[in-house]
C-alpha cells in the first residue's frame, strides 16, 4: 500500500483496539493502533461471533456481511478496499484448509455499486498516467465527473465480470451487498432463475447502500444467463454480468457435476377459448 488503511468489519463483535475505524473517539495509545495502519506496518484485528449473534435456525447456514477500510471510508471504498465477510453456523464448514461449506456446492459474491472514481485515492495518478494532456483535465467538470462513475458488479462494467460458472441442479449461495450513496439503489435480477431469500421466492433482490443479502438457488437449465441491475439508468450503461450453468451430466467448469439430468414432467391440457364481443357505452 502507498497510504494508511484499516479493516473495519460489519456483523461481528470486537474490542476497541480491533474496530478499524478512524474518527475522534477520544481514545489513545494502543487503542489507536487499529485506526490507521501505515504502509509496511501491521496490526492484528481480533473479532468474535457469539452464539447469540450467529445465524439462527431460521437463517441460511451462512450470512452475508462485509469489511472495508475506514480511514476515509468513502474514498477507501471507492479505491476498492471492500469485500464480503461471511459468518456461518457452527458445523456448517468442513475441516479443510481453507474450510468449505457443506450445505451448498457453489458460493458467489457480488457487489452492486456505482463506483465513484472521482473519490479514488488513485485519481491524480490515473490522470497523470492515462491522459495525453494531464494539465488540461478539469476535475470539477460535470461531464468528467460523470465519466468516472462506473456502474459495476464487482468493479467490472459492460458485462466483463468473469463468468460465474456453476453446475445445473446443484445448490448455489449468492452473497449480495451494496455500498455508496443515494444513487446506489439496485435491483439484482437473475434472468430465468428463482432465488430464495428471507423466506420468499423471487428472481430479484433489492440492494441498498450498506445492505447485505443472502440468497440460495438451484439452477435447472444449462446455458448462459444474464444477471443485471434493472434500475433504468444503471441498465442503460450495462451494469450486467453473466452466469453459466454447465449441464449436470457434462461436468462443471468449476468442478465435477455428477447429478443425473433433471427431466421436467409435462401434462397436456385442452383449453377452449371463446371470443366474446364487448360493447362499452360511455355517457353522452
UniProtKB/TrEMBL annotation:
Asked if S-adenosyl-L-methionine is a keyword of the record, the answer is no
Molecular function terms from GO = ferroxidase activity; metal ion binding
Which residue intervals make up region (Disordered)? 16-37
Q: What is its EC number?
A: 1.16.3.1
Which locations, inside or outside the cell, does it occupy? Membrane
Q: Which GO terms describe its biological process?
A: monoatomic ion transport
Tell me the InterPro entries matching this sequence: Cu-oxidase_2nd, Cupredoxin
The UniProt similarity line reads: Belongs to the multicopper oxidase family.
UniProt name for this protein: ferroxidase
Q: Which gene encodes it?
A: HEPH
Amino acid at each position: 500500500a502507498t497510504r494508511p488503511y484499516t479493516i473495519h468489519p460489519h456483523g461481528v463483535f470486537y474490542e476497541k483496539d480491533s474496530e478499524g475505524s478512524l474518527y475522534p473517539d477520544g481514545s489513545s495509545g494502543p487503542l489507536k493502533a487499529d485506526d490507521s495502519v501505515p504502509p509496511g506496518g501491521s496490526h492484528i484485528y481480533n473479532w468474535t461471533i457469539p452464539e447469540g449473534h450467529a445465524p439462527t435456525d431460521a437463517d441460511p447456514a451462512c450470512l452475508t456481511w462485509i469489511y472495508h477500510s475506514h480511514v476515509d471510508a468513502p474514498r477507501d471504498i471507492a479505491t476498492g478496499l471492500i469485500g464480503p465477510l461471511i459468518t456461518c453456523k457452527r458445523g456448517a464448514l468442513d475441516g479443510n484448509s481453507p474450510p468449505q461449506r457443506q450445505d451448498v456446492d457453489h458460493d458467489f459474491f457480488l457487489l452492486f455499486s456505482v463506483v465513484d472514481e472521482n473519490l479514488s485515492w488513485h485519481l491524480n495518478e490515473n490522470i497523470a498516467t492515462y491522459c495525453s494532456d494531464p494539465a488540461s483535465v478539469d476535475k470539477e467538470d460535470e461531464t468528467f465527473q460523470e465519466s468516472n462513475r462506473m456502474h459495476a458488479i464487482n468493479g467490472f462494467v459492460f458485462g466483463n465480470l468473469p463468468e460465474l460458472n456453476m453446475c445445473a441442479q446443484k445448490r448455489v449461495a449468492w452473497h449480495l451487498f451494496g455500498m455508496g450513496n443515494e444513487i446506489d439503489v439496485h435491483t439484482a435480477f437473475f434472468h430465468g432463475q428463482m432465488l430464495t431469500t428471507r423466506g420468499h421466492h423471487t428472481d430479484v433482490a433489492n440492494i441498498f447502500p450498506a445492505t447485505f443479502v443472502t440468497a440460495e438457488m438451484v439452477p435447472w437449465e444449462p446455458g448462459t444467463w444474464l444477471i443485471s441491475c434493472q434500475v433504468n439508468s444503471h441498465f442503460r450503461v450495462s451494469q450486467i454480468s453473466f452466469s453459466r450453468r454447465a449441464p449436470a451430466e457434462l461436468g462443471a467448469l468449476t468442478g465435477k457435476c455428477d447429478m443425473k439430468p433433471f427431466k421436467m414432467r409435462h401434462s397436456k391440457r385442452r383449453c377452449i377459448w371463446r371470443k366474446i364481443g364487448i360493447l362499452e357505452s360511455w355517457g353522452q
